[in-house]
Amino acid sequence: MPRKLPPLTTLPAFDAAARHLSFTNAAGELNLTHGAISRAIRNLEDQLGVQLFERGTRSVSLTPAGATYAAEIGAALDQISGATLVATAPRSAGVLTVSTSDGFAGRWLVPRLYRFHRAHRDIDVRISTSGMLADFVRDGIDIAIRYGGGEYEGVVSELLSEVDVFPVCSPELLQGEHPLRMPADLRFHTLIHDGFPIDWATWLEKAGVTDINPNSGVRFDSATYATEAAVHGEGVLLGRSTLVSADLAAGRLVRPFGLELKASSRYYVVYLANALRQRKVKAFRDWLHEESRADAARGSLTPR
């Protein structure tokens, strides 16, 4: 029996307008004119015999029928996008492109990536570092690791690790003229900042220390550089468990105090719904979870 389908060329316009609740923003996303978006949606409504949008003077909103239709069409377009990724994968079957932040790449992923290569010599890994969630199809991304709340539209999101936050420093700072033995000893040392939401002000308050300026010290935009500064004894970093796990295990960093705070955000493995059909993606995803569990067994972070 033939499928009853709407004009397929109208669906991207409808999907974009429904997500943005703006014909103008939908036009910008699709590189079309406002008039082209409006005509496509009007054509779709005429073919369906259903009004999908309430049009105001300066705004649009979905009708109840439009909201229901948008949810289904959005899911269908995500499936088509994933199927397209799978269908085109054989052209680069041996190359796996991973998107993540520079901090996670530099402090967690790269130091242990040799183990993945050793087990999967036929898969070449490419690392793309960005703070933005990648467009998997447009950017050619196979899998991503992201730090946040885990609610990413149109993709599968799996918890990789929870994050604890605590001070870390070089073992050298446990000795010398002003050894770190209690939180109050931080007054003799440089505070290192990496822009993380849980900052020194929060930690010092929980530790009951009130006579240290939490904004003093040296500040980095990159967690990689901030951690490297701590490794070289330049001060004390409020480290994220995931990003300092390898340095703690190797003895390059130590925890001078026991107080730790639980971060509200976590690290997630993110990929398109159909991506695990590709052996390279499944192998890497499984390896990430194995590494996370191994870290947890060493006591350096909390897995899912």
From TrEMBL:
One of its GO terms (biological process) is DNA-templated transcription. GO terms for molecular function: DNA-binding transcription factor activity; sequence-specific DNA binding. It holds the Pfam family LysR_substrate. Keywords: DNA-binding, Transcription, Transcription regulation. The keyword Oxidoreductase does not apply. The keyword Transcription applies. InterPro entries: LysR-type_TF_proteobact-type (IPR058163), LysR_HTH_N (IPR000847), LysR_subst-bd (IPR005119), WH-like_DNA-bd_sf (IPR036388), WH_DNA-bd_sf (IPR036390). Belongs to the LysR transcriptional regulatory family. This is Transcriptional regulator GcvA. It comes from Paradevosia tibetensis.
